[in-house]
Every structure is written in C-alpha cells, then in structure tokens.
Amino acid sequence: MALDKNFLWGGATAANQVEGGVLEGGRKLSNIDVLPCGEDRKAVGFGEMEMLEWKEGYYYPAKEAIDMYHRYMDDIQLFAEMGFKAYRMSLSWSRIFPNGDDAEPNEEGLAFYEGIFKELKKHNIEPLVTIAHFDVPIHLIKEYGGWRSRKLVDFYSRYAETVLKRFKGYVKYWLTINEINILLHQPFVGGGIIFKEGDNKEEIKYQAAHYQLLASAKATKIAHEVDPEIQVGCMLAGGSHYPYTCRPEDYQEAIKRDREGYFFIDVQARGKYPNYALKKFEQEGLNIVMEDGDAEILASAPVDFVSFSYYCSRTVSAHPEDYQQATGNLFASIKNDNLPSTEWGWQIDPLGLRNSLNQLYDRYQKPLFIVENGLGAIDQPDENGFVDDEYRIDYLRKHVEAFKAAVEVDGVELLGYTTWGCIDLVAASTGQMSKRYGFIYVDRDDEGNGTLNRSKKKSFDWYKQVIATNGENLASPVVATASV
Fold this sequence. Notes:
Helix 3 runs parallel beside helix 5, helix 9 packs across helix 12 and helix 13 (350-364) runs parallel beside helix 14 (390-408). The radius of gyration is 21 Å and the shape is globular. The strands form three sheets. An eight-stranded parallel β-barrel has the order 1-2-3-4-5-7-9-10, surrounded by five helices. A two-stranded parallel ribbon has the order 6-8. A two-stranded antiparallel ribbon has the order 11-12. It is an alpha/beta fold. The protein has 15 helices and twelve strands. It has helices at residues 15-18, 41-45, 68-82, 93-96, 107-122, 138-144, 151-166, 187-191, 201-226, 248-270, 275-283, 294-300, 350-364, 390-408, 458-468; strands at 8-12, 86-90, 126-132, 173-177, 231-237, 241-243, 305-309, 314-316, 368-372, 414-420, 440-442, 454-456. 38% of the residues lie in helices and 12% in strands. It has one domain (8-468): TIM Barrel (Alpha-Beta Barrel), CATH 3.20.20. The longest helix is centred in the middle third of the chain and has 26 residues, at 201-226.
C-alpha cells in the first residue's frame, strides 16, 4: 500500500511565531507575545514568573516575528512553488476576539485570514487550521486566570463557532488545540496559567485540561453541524518513551509517561476519561470538578482524526539517579547513547516516528496526520542567502522513509505530512531565530536584526522533488545557489 495519490504534503507554522503585527488590525496581546527571549523565558512559560505586558530590558520575538502579516502573499507563492498540497497554520484568537470575551468578533482580523485562505485556494493548497496554537488572549488571563476558569470553555466555543461559520468552504481540516498535553509541562504556554503561592499545581493543570477537553468537544460538535464535510482532529506533542533498561520498573515508567500524553487523546478520540486517569485523580486526591452534562459533551463529538508532532523519542527511568545525563527537550529524558542529537540536544530517531505511528493507530484506529516534524539547526547562508542544508535533507529523508514504511509495510492510515517551520520562524521553545527549521531562510537574528528577506535553501528543491514524486524520489538534488 503506497501513499495515497491525494496525500497531503506541506508545511506548518503558527500565527504567533510568524505573523508579527501583534497590535495591528485591532489585535491585542496574547500569552506568547509576552514570552521574552532569554533566561526568563522558561520561568514565564512554566507559569512561575508573571509577565503580562512588555517590559523594559526584554526582547519579545513574537512582536514582529518574520512579518508574515504583511508578507503572506509572497510566502504562499513560495509554498506553491514547492508544490504544497496543504499548509498548516493557526489563527490568532486575539486577532479575531481581541480580548477573548468580546461580544462581537473583529472584522478586520476575520478579513485578514479570509485573504490568506483565498490566496491558498488560488494555488490549490488545502489549509489545515489550528484554532488555538499556544494562544490565550492576555485579557482572559488577567480577568479569569486563563484556562483555570470554566468561562473559557464558552469564550473558546464562541470563537470556534465564529471561525467555523465564517470560513465554511475555505477550510476542510481543523485542529482544536495545538499540542494539548503541553499544558502539563508549560502551563502558561498551554493555558495562560500563572501559579500563586500555595497552589495545588497538579490539580489546577488537570482542571484546566478538563476545560480544554470540553471546549475541544464543543468545537468538534459545532464543526460537524456547520458542515458535515469538515474533518476535525486533535493534536498531541508526540514521541514514544523508551525504558532506559529492561528493568520492569523502567518499562512501567515508560508506559506511565506515554499515558500523560495519551490521556488527552483518549478523551478526544474516544469521548470519555480513561480509567487510569480517574484512578490518578482518586489516588492523588485531585479534586477535578466535573459538572452534570460534561460526560455527555465529551461523548457527543469524538474527533475524526489524530494529529501529532514528532521530533524525537524519549528515554525514561524509574530511578532518578539515571537522569544525570539528560537531553535538551522540554520533556525530562535521559540521553540515549544509541541515537545522535541535534545542536539543541534533541535526539534524532526516525524509527521512533514509525513506532509512534503504529502505537497511535493501534490505540485509536483513526486516520493519523503528522503535522509537525523537522530539524532545528544553525544555518550558515552564503552571500546570496543560500543555505546548503544537507543535514536537514538527511533528517527529513529518514523520517519520510519511516512514515512510508508505517503506511506501506504496517498498514497505518496516514492523511498527510506537514513539516514544522517550512519557513524559518521564532522557535517556541527558546524564542530564537537561530534555531531554524525552514526550507526558506529568513534574514533575522536572535536580537531582531536583519532585513527579513527570504531565500531558498537546498532543502527547498529537495522537498519540491519529494512532493512532485509523492515521496518516491528522496535523493538530494543538484541546485544552483540563488536567492528568491
């Protein structure tokens, strides 16, 4: 079974990492806009340091990002030149509802996205749209505490209904909440949550998770009512966990860590809480408030497909002393000596992608979609802006080979593949531009200097060739060094 002729090859970005224009067109600040580049970024992202506006002495990379707000037509032209079948993007909640709880949407924001969809349609590129990608309007954080509050379920649902109705006919594929399990690891990034002294952090995170799961189910139900042709997916920060040794307790730890992410997708794909999650709440004394009717809401609208990001696998142990040599990923992981690492310490494991695909498909029996995968690396452009990124081609080639094997050998049902950061963007984890993922180089540094000019990397022509052959020709191309 080869890849389907309608397989959706493409690339992925997020509004807060590419758009800029954060106070233009009626938009107001959102949580990621106030994440600074530098040493305080982690503390803010973890909800341990309050920062709800721009402060002197900090650089906020999302403020201008790569200025796609003003340049999207040129960027889409480049995506079309590569032959994209799909473009995964997100909407900015605060561009459409500037405060998040406004009575009426911001027409200028809606018109902006309609312009993008029309441009994509002109080039026969299918939009895959994330409703909330690490995105909580600042007003909702100040006024309600972010996703601590059940009120956000209704605010999100109204936002979702607005965009689903407005963009009916433009968008067939929707994702409700990006990497929903990140809420457990970076509560401010995933939920706009800032902790106070004495907070029961675990209880707050899982209560917020309940509200997000309700909101996701409501949005899925609305989507199917607006247009039965719409396909709605959930989105997991994926990557399997390996036991560090064959000790049974290490294997048990790997199962436990996998479940931390699967918990969300179990609810979204199956429509109910798994028993292991209910037992966790009971055994740890977590008082998760669930109102009458919540179970029915969750059961009423399971997602149509399961999407996920994959960058690396993770290795875990039941013994804390084993973590002396850790990797650089957000998720606690032990360095696996069987795998190479990126410049940021993320371990490269193409076979892990195939394993993850099989695990997810065995678990849910729903179509899958790889909506993020890529190599963050330091690129060195020549005088024309050309980057010979053979290392990126090698990374992506091996991951394409892995997911093709999952389809052709293992029988996994896969809708498509959108590489992360198809154009260089602000890295979510670090706020850096120097951690580059794209096929298109953007002249911008970590301090905000540069022309923002775009130029093609070697991988641009490689991916163009991959798409044109539906994944059959993965060889490195011979290309001239020329800028856009």
